[in-house]
Amino acid sequence: MTAERGEGRMGGIIMLLMMAAIGLACWNIIPVYFANSSFSDKMVEMARRPKYNNSDEEIMRQLEKEARALKIEEFINTRTCKIATMDYRRKINCDYDRTVQVLPGFKYTFKFRNEADQPLL
User: Fold this and answer.
1) How confident is the model at residue 1 (pLDDT cuts 50, 70, 90)?
2) Residue 64 to residue 75: CA distance in whole angstroms
3) What is the span of the domain harbouring residue 51?
4) Which end of the chain offers a freer environment for a tag, N or C, measured as fewer CB atoms within 10 Å?
5) How far is 49 from 52, CA to CA, in rounded Å?
6) d(Cα 48, Cα 116) in Å, to the nearest integer?
7) Is 111 exposed, middle or buried (0-12, 13-18, 19+ CB in 10 A)?
8) pLDDT given at position 23
């Protein structure tokens, strides 16, 4: 019987470090996409609100409130969001960039371009 010498240890350590890096990157990236998706859903909901008792200013206040709840308020404001209400529909555009540290020493800027164009109820 021959004794094992353990030559596979370095490969196992490298694989473990790679898996840890992937896990950390996912930990940092998934909340960014989740917040944007939730905000985009709220934009569609706001775009469908009736025209006569929901002014563009009120819609913007509600969007800013939702951004605070999702902790993205530093990206959502009157410069990044435009609201246009027409006779039968409302269009909301919110374009913002968000820089996130994905891994130590590596940052990435996500560019989100959200649009909600809905008929008024």
Assistant:
1) low
2) 10
3) 9-119
4) N
5) 9
6) 9
7) exposed
8) 95
Q: Which residue's entry shows tokens 């009120």?
A: 58
Q: Is residue 3 part of a domain?
A: no
* Residue recorded with tokens 């775009």: 47
- Residue 31 inside a domain? The answer is yes
- The rounded distance, in Å, linking the Cα atoms of 18 and 70 is 30
User: HSE-up of 98 (CA within 13 Å, CB side)?
Assistant: 21
Task: Answer yes or no: is pLDDT of 4 > 70.
Answer: no
83: nearest Cα among 71, 98, 95: 95
Quote the pLDDT of residue 121: 73
pLDDT single digits (tens) 50-88: 888 889 999 999 999 999 999 999 999 889 999 999 989
Q: Note the pTM of the prediction, 2 decimals.
A: 0.82
The total domain count for the chain is 1
Amino acid in the structure at residue 93: N
Q: End-to-end distance of the chain based on CA atoms, in angstroms?
A: 80
